[in-house]
Amino acid sequence: MVNKEMPLWAGKKILHEKQMDSTNVAAKRAGNEGADAGMVFWADVQTAGKGRRGRSWYSYEADNLYFTILLRPSITPDKASMLTLVMAYAVAKAVRELTGLEAQIKWPNDIVVAGKKICGILCEMKLDGTRLDYCVAGVGVNVGRQEFAEDIRDKATSLEEQLGRKIDREGLLQAILGRFERGYEEFLHCEDLSFLREEYNEWLVNQNRQVRVLEPQGEYEGVAKGITNTGELLVECVDGQVQKVYAGEVSVRGLYGYV
Ligand code: BTN
Fold this sequence. Notes:
Blueprint: E1 14-20, H1 23-32, E2 40-46, E3 65-71, H2 82-99, E4 104-106, E5 110-113, E6 116-128, E7 131-141, H3 159-163, H4 169-190, H5 197-202, E8 210-215, E9 218-227, E10 233-236, E11 242-245, E12 251-254
Parallel strand pairs: 1-2
Antiparallel strand pairs: 2-3, 3-7, 4-5, 5-6, 6-7, 8-9, 8-12, 9-10, 10-11
Helix pairs in contact: 2-4
Bound molecules: biotin.
């Protein structure tokens, strides 16, 4: 009998090394060299971990989880940003099912436990002309992280800090890959997020909360009203107008703290 929680192709081949510059960069190098979809790059430590919007991602402690999966979806590039939400959903589901913690999602791609960030996701894509050549989905989970810089101490936490016990990183990796594989297949089938929208919105930490949207063109405030089938966040402004917020260069913040 096939165990539905175990991935079949996602992570069938895993390159696990003590140290990499960035698992996203390693996955992109392999993508350029024709590596198969589903290959996973897992590093105990990253020397140049990358975060969103050009930031770096703290990756010096070996008891966290840093990995990237290489994907070659047959979709148009405009749909690739939905992969971030597919991965966020998979991580939240895996954490909930594996640990019992009430993991939530801060749109589009942070996983939050007890109001603090435990995971960030960075998806990148490579085009071949106008065609999507490959995507990489990189995940950084604070599993046993002990050190937090002063400016993020009240915004970040780790799974072990929340649980009060050790977590097996490989078990967590497999749990995420299993849930991602199923979500990814559903996503490729319907080419939208209708299959996860209801649960994603239930787990959305921003839901019905006042948020500030920071776009390159300016800022505005409103109340978050969940995601659409294509992954945009709906924000109802004071004048009653509902804005669709597209992931990318946008940042959505709570008015009273991180969430
Ligand atoms: C964020 O800014 O929240 C996204 C952080 C993504 C970090 C992960 S760690 C594994 C993978 N490799 C990287 O260099 N970045 C991603």
